[in-house]
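ok trying again, last paste got cut off:
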Amino acid sequence: MAYPNIHEGFIDKTAEKPNPLHRFATYNTIFTLSGVTEEEIKSGAYLKAPLHDIVARTGGIGPDGARSGYRIGEKDRVKERVRGPAQDAVLERLDAQFDQYRDSIDVLERHHDVFFEDVNILSTVGPNSERNTSNFTKMEFKIHEPYGITFTEKVRAATFNSGFLDYQDAPLLLTIEFKGTDENGKPVLTGLAETRKIPVLIVRVDFDINEGGAVYDVTAVPYSDMPFDDRFKVLRTQFEVEAGGTFNEWKTSMEKGLDDQMDQEIEEKVRAYRDKYQFEVDLRLFDSQLFKYAFDLDSIHTGATVNQASGIQYINPQDFGLSEYSAIVKNQTQTIDAGTTVTKAFEDWIRSQPGFFDLTQDFWRAYLHMAGYKLSNDEATRTSEIRDLLTNKDREGEVADLLVRHQFIPWFKIKTTVFTDTDRLDPVTKMHPKTLVYKAIPYKIHVLKILTAGMSIGKVSWHRFVRKNYDYLYTGDNVDVQGLRLNYKSAYYMRNVRGDDQTENEKGVVPKWAVNAWNQVFGKEDYPEPLLPLRSYPSNIKGRSTVKNLRAGGNRAQEFFDYLTNPEADMMRIELDILGDPQYLCQDVFALLQQRTKDLTVQVIDQTGQDFSEEYGSFNADSFMPMINLRYRLPADLDERVEGTMFSGKRRYRDENLFFNGVYQVVKVDSKFTNGQFLQTLTCVRMNNQQGTGQAPLVLSSSAKNPDYLGKQEKTQKDRDRERIDYEYSQNERLDDRDGNVPGVG
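nice, full thing came through this time. structure:
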């Protein structure tokens, strides 16, 4: 299936999403901590189901902290499932368990009020240095309990009522509700868009006890983060994985290696039951659109199959009938050492596959295939076709329009979930056995992330295509921004990673297909944005992949992955303080995967091709890279000679810092609820070369010798002056465009 172009035709008025809290004249944020059952986790019902077994709530619990019906119906389920003498033994065991928890349940059902005070939620919403392609979230909140120290007792009872014996590994549900009134004092109707429900795991509680009761400092993480705990993600043995085949072959090999590890631990008597590891890929990852990056599908004679459970079209690489595919993957090997994480092994295998690998190795060939251009299978002819498209001045507008229409390129991220077998408790570890799900899902990266030194798309009004526009001006346009901090690395340059420093003997026997040339593209502009010059320099510093791939260009694949997962190292980083906006509390990031069958999960919030969820009123940060546009200028001195104003209506000045304006990728959201205030700090990095002349880049084969093009492209001072004037004009044009008069592509 084709990846839809969700942004085509967007303009300011339709794409932008205002802060929903601006509808309130005054509002309160209500936090509730309550129980959640395993069935609610597996089905996703917790998103809309009533709350039960309430432990703490802003403003007090009240009479509605109902008990979960799980334990009430447990005996009936046992009677249906177990027959004969075994039934009596099971019922007796259940009665004994209930007796152990009776005191805690009595404490919970007194509905003793426990209050939330300060809450802080730090969340990444894209690739990051902590977890690479996975999300990272940390929550800290302060809970005040007057005249009592019962919080832990209540947690123990709430999780038992929900079906868990091991309360230290059991989930709770954190609910955030925004409620308030309009300027006439009437309550504003709210729904899912003003509510967030987050299954959480409490990892630490600090007590401060005094004569008035207790104050708890609680640290929690989303329950879906449990597979990232070191006890689950870090391998304790070394084994080889079958990396040279299909995903099912890799999955079988990987899961067998982990099962063998646990069998050894059972033999060593350090556990009695296995935890189950489950690796999945969303079928849309390996569909026909992805494989267009590597192959021309016109040559494929076999059709796609349709997965009946999901209805998603899926092309199996083995059905391609292409010898190239098997040649590419069969020589891959993967060795996973003790201490390596399972998520890294999973990521390394996925990005070594045709499509993802080709995107990073030969971007323009892959991108043009994806956009529908028919390119020759012959290498020399294909290089000539790409060169003609990118270097023909008559086609510059066509290329710019192409990049605007296809702004997002397919990538992936790893989403995790844990399911618990509450019917068994390991007699050695005293923990419930768990199923740990690691699923690769589609994720979209903006094309500006791919641009390198000297390359630009041209003069594009990028604010047309984002959901949030912020005006940091001394005018009424600024209704959100409270403060701004800039971090500008003036000595920044991009690493241009060289090939592996190996001799021919060290490389061994390399197949002919592995040394084929690929296209290298060099930007012909000096600095598309003169005050933010993007440069590059040779380097041999790069991350390490557990997959050994003989294909040429592997260094570029690793270079791109390192760059993508370290966004805060970019040249321009800002920290934007804004009035709190629930749309950055991304419900899809906090939601767990829903169990469809025993061996298959789906995203409970899955709005294919949409970067924003209208139902839940938040960015779909699990699917798209969140983007914002920032427009600001700092005041110069009064113009006493001409206009007598702080800002001129006719011209712009350098000291108004216009070159910082532009589109930013949101990489981290820090939400603070303190003393009745809701504020957020957005950590963002500026996208590359957003404005320029849009000159076509130079295209060379990687096998070209003695490239003397640099001297031939030397620019005169007149050329540089013209670029500077064009750049300043584009900045003025974009600033004047705040009224919605959108210029076209330059």
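cool. Residues 502 and 508 are 10 Å apart (CA to CA). The longest helix spans residues 85-108.
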